[in-house]
Design brief:
NTA_MOA (chains A, B), 16 helices, homodimer, TIM Barrel, oxidoreductase activity, acting on paired donors, with incorporation or reduction of molecular oxygen (chains A, B), 2 domains, two-stranded antiparallel sheet, 8-stranded parallel barrel
């Protein structure tokens, strides 16, 4: 891990269920409305991301229906494992990071899936290991949601067991030597007999190493338990801060936790979630966001009311398409209960109407840039140079044209500024992310 | 299901772990020794099978290491789900039948995997639902092997739950209508609240139907419990008889069981396992099989001893490369303890040496034809016309040249004789196998 490498940001892409981060973007003219079931399109988008040297695809997941499909597209792909496999077969360099629950999988099955995928992608797989805290998911597995303590207890064991199974086929013992007749050295393919409180598995898992040894672990979720899990295992962390200060503090905490667990701070890459709408002008970008808002008038009314509450004002009866009068803005106060409030107030004070303020994405679940490619590049540069993040998990409003805009317009700007690599540094995800080869457990 | 259709045999192909059915065939000059990890090769072989109009690939599986890799290639692919996905993306018509355990999977996860794969393959997936009776597999899941009664109790519930989840997204409600803004009709996407003794799952599984509705079920395993499971659910059965009489009786039993469960007998297709070595002459084919036997002298000695026991003779000290003297053959008796014994004795009596008798595959786990393409076609025709089987699950000794030989030499013979289709009858696996569209549970 050289200093040189550390100076450039790493970027992973979220296509969500194939549309992007805005759950009504499927209605835009640019959208392919049945993208959810269209694997050809999914693969094409991944190929475009690879052309833009995006480090990896990142797929969130919860094994349950988690939003209302009457008007919204799904929050997750039909199946991340199958999407990753399809993309792996049609790309050469881009990494593939999938979210798989430690609560709602069997360790042996998941170890097998991910190692196989790592072998056939020639070392490009990462595993975002999450405990899953959704009751609807638990119900799909005939369970009530276990306590946080139990879920994290199981998560630690689950990762240990998976990494143990990954190592149960020794390095360098896949011989397939026609002369001697030795296919493998069975002395180095051994059961692990893992006996935890939550997980027991014998092994061996009969799969040889990939080019990167085994997939790196990612983590998401800012609880103390989550940070501890990341400190022990994670090479990448998916983070959700809304401000640079929050992001810096979180990153420092993660780096300290890695060191506390006997690892190098630089072994953890923090990827901050970030959403964008790119157009030729800011006004054009805002117009697209207004359209997304207007697709659902009921929800828009709710969002306006919430925006009012964020800045201490009652928006009942106002014309939301007009900027607020100065007298109102002087009374407005950012609500400390929502970290996004200062940004909302700032936009209102810039003279944007409540609708246009919402169109800035001020109540999205990530920071949002709505504007030109330069606006997006500027944002990423500011956060990166402030030490807020090692990289970004970018989420286009609509993937079907958003990836193209990012790859063709933002990536060259970042490259010109020396902030983003000109090409993949190697063949494997570990090489892309400047992580050491790893095979088996780290401890 | 027309009579016309029923007159032709259906063929599925087993590539086993990528080499074929002989676990030392990886040492043959024609073999690619690292085929186990070579997904490109696996996909190429599937494409060749599709060129030959093979109805489907069939992948057996046990989630455990089940043979000795010191000298043998593995019994199973690294991961059938990932292999099926890779093949699905690179082919258009061939079906994909994978074996997945009802004991060592979560119903929700497997329902999701298989339905997703069915959607992206446009309706080409089948599921061979097995209970798995291997202790080593149980140990990989922290379990002791459950009783047969429990395993089959769980299997019935597991299939019911999976089919319930498959139907939990209503037909025709994936609307994605940009004009009305309705993405799906949530009134028709409903939990199933399945509450069994072994399986509980709520759903819904948020995935729309494939072109065939949902994957057909396959079954394997000749116990009364297995036959009952097939009678309730199976559209295809993988069978292991050694003689035509045995096969006919088994097929009749399955057909009767389907009717007992309120289904049409023709809804069950029996696929008999069958292995082959094809060469330009029988002697050449036998030479290849001798080479396979000679790769392991210790095992060869054991096999010779077993062959002796099968025909009531002691082979200690004989020259196994010489035919047995007439005096010995007159004393020989087929051992009733092994259904393969009459065939072994028959070959010895034809004047083949013990080695060449073994080279005929008389103690393989399926009937074997070692000879020319015509010999193979004759065998399949005899069994098919005798009513022994609706089709065959063919296993080449080495897939790397065996599929080519079958597709290029045997398939045209079968087609010329009117025994095998000239092209796929439709787009989906159900169409290929003459099965009705199905969505949800049959009962």
């Amino acid at each position: 891990m050289t200093q040189e490498r550390k100076k450039q940001m790493k970027i992973v892409l979220q296509m969500v269920s194939g549309y992007g981060g805005e759950f009504r973007s499927w209605r835009l003219p640019e959208a392919k409305a049945d993208a959810y079931t269209d694997m050809d399109l999914y693969v094409e988008m991944a190929q475009l991301a690879e052309k833009g040297k995006i480090h990896a695809l990142f797929m969130a997941d919860t094994p349950a229906l988690t939003n209302h499909l009457e008007t919204e597209s799904p929050m997750h792909s039909m199946d991340p494992l199958i999407a990753m496999t399809a993309v792996a077969r049609a790309t050469k360099r881009i990494g593939l990071v999938g979210t798989f629950s430690t609560t709602f999988n069997e360790a042996y099955n998941l170890a097998r899936h991910l190692k196989t995928l790592d072998v056939i992608s020639h070392g490009r797989v990462g595993w975002n290991a999450v405990t899953t805290s959704t009751s609807a998911a638990a119900a799909n597995f005939g369970q009530h949601l276990a306590s946080r303590q139990e879920r994290y207890g199981r998560a630690h064991e689950f990762i240990e067991a998976v990494q143990g199974l990954w190592r149960s086929w020794g390095e360098g013992v896949y011989l397939h030597d026609k002369e001697t007749g030795q296919f493998a050295d069975m002395g180095q393919i051994r059961p692990i007999h893992y006996q935890g409180t939550y997980i027991q598995t014998s092994g061996p898992l009969p799969i040889p190493p990939s080019e990167q040894g085994q997939p790196p672990i990612f983590q998401a979720g800012p609880s103390p338990d989550g940070i501890h899990l990341a400190g022990r295992f994670a090479s990448g962390v998916y983070a959700n801060p809304f401000t640079i200060e929050e992001a810096k503090a979180y990153r420092q905490m993660l780096r300290a936790e890695a060191e506390k667990n006997g690892r190098q701070a630089d072994e953890i890459n923090v990827f901050t979630g970030f959403m964008f709408t790119i157009a030729d002008s800011k006004e054009e970008a805002l117009a697209r966001r207004r359209q997304l808002l207007e697709f659902d008038q009921d929800e828009l009314a709710q969002r306006l009311a919430y925006l009012g509450a964020m800045v201490g004002l009652n928006f009942q009866g106002i014309d939301p398409y007009q900027p607020l009068p100065q007298s109102w803005l002087q009374l407005a106060r950012a609500n400390p209960g929502d970290p996004r409030s200062p940004r909302a107030l700032e936009v209102l004070k810039e003279g944007y109407s409540p609708i246009d303020t919402l169109a800035h994405g001020v109540i999205n679940y990530h920071p949002v840039v709505v504007g030109t490619a330069t606006d997006v590049a500027d944002f990423l540069q500011e956060w990166f140079e402030a030490g807020a993040s090692d990289g970004f998990s970018i989420v286009p409003d609509l993937a079907h044209d958003g990836i193209k805009a990012f790859v063709e317009q933002v990536v060259p700007l970042l490259q010109d500024r020396g902030l983003f690599h000109q090409d993949y540094e190697g063949q494997t995800l570990r090489e892309h992310l400047d992580l050491p080869y790893q095979y088996g457990r780290q401890e």
